[in-house]
Amino acid sequence: MARRRAPGRGPFFLALLVALRLALLDADPARACTGGEIIPDQFYNNCRRLVEGVQEVAVARRVGHPDAELLTGRLVKTWIDFYLEHGEAPPPFHADIATGTWRLAMREVGLSIRRLIDQAPGHDDGEPAVLPLYLLVQPEARQTVHAWLDAWTASPPAELITGPTVASCTAWLEASVIRPVLGLRGFLAAEFPNSAERLLDHLEAIRQRWRPVRQAAPPEQEALLQTTWPSLLALIGTERTAWRTRLLLEP
Fold this sequence. Notes:
11 helices, 2 domains, 251 residues
């Protein structure tokens, strides 16, 4: 049987890969090294291979490339190799990331790769798997993302639990949820548009739940507030935890 050719890398394919490849290549791993068994160059190269594998599979599946199955098998092997080498604990130069947090993030990368493979072509471009890897080789980007995530709070002050008002809750939502989420969305939009869109979807879900409370007539508003506010906080907390877990922060 004739050997199958590797997929061609035309302009469309290269355009998808170039941004993250440049980011990975521009990183200076030597500066981050603090000693230990793992050589920084090796870690960065492993990240690069995994990013390329995810994106190759996403493109091949989307365009119906005949080598999609072959690339999928290669991606699975690349992920297994990556996990066996890095999955259980952060390398020494990422010692600021707790082991438990690292393991959760690596688990999310693996689940994202599985979703990419299992879902119908075109439904997933691999962003959820690529974004954490991007942050691991871009310390400044990770610092910015973590600052926005830390500003995004899920627990309001005690007075908004024991005696919330529509005005005070609205002000808290604006300062502690909406602004940080918009900031994070703005930072991610250029390179990770689907992740940015998910953040907008979350904000829209908040607005849809909160709008009836703000627009209710005074006799009904208090009762609506008491029933809506706890469920809204739960929604915000669940989404915030998901983002922190994916992006290498403690939930």
